[in-house]
Hints:
Keywords: DNA-binding, Transcription, Transcription regulation. One of its GO terms (cellular component) is cytosol. There is one protein chain. This protein has two domains: 3-85, Arc Repressor Mutant, subunit A, CATH 1.10.10; 91-132, no CATH class. The mean pLDDT is 84. Helix 1 (3-15) packs across helix 2, helix 1 crosses helix 3 and helix 1 packs across helix 4. It is an alpha+beta fold. The chain has helices at residues 3-15, 18-25, 29-43, 59-85, 99-105, 107-116; strands at residues 48-51, 54-57, 91-97, 120-126. It has a two-stranded antiparallel ribbon with strand order 1-2. Strands 3-4 form a two-stranded parallel sheet. It contains six helices and four strands, in the order αααββαβααβ. Helix content is 60%, strand content 17%.
Amino acid sequence: MKQIQLEYFIEVVEQNNFTKAAEKLFISQSALSKSIQSLEKELDTSLFTRDPRELKLTEEGRLVYHYAKDVLNYWHDRTAELFSSLNYKKGTLRFGLPPSAGSVYFSRVLYLYSKEYDHVDLQIFEEKSKKWS
């Protein structure tokens, strides 16, 4: 079981919708569905009752949801404590991306980075490559 799978699962539960969760996570619905199916296969249980009109957690899904929330909260709290203990400094990360590649290839990475390193000021510049020639 991977951290990202738990994050995806939590988002689906909280949005109560695969499409909305995928949009919020900046991934495709099919990638999200595959991740949840992989988690279900690994746990050998169904997490949702799939009805075209309504998405419901199974009893096992409720257990996994509470487990995932606890694990991720613990991880985030301990990580914050570690950075604090190391006197982690706030900083700025500046980088440039071509307009087309930036939104297509890096949106998920940027989203995860900003969640993980919320103390870092991300400054992203979208410029055409000819500007640097």
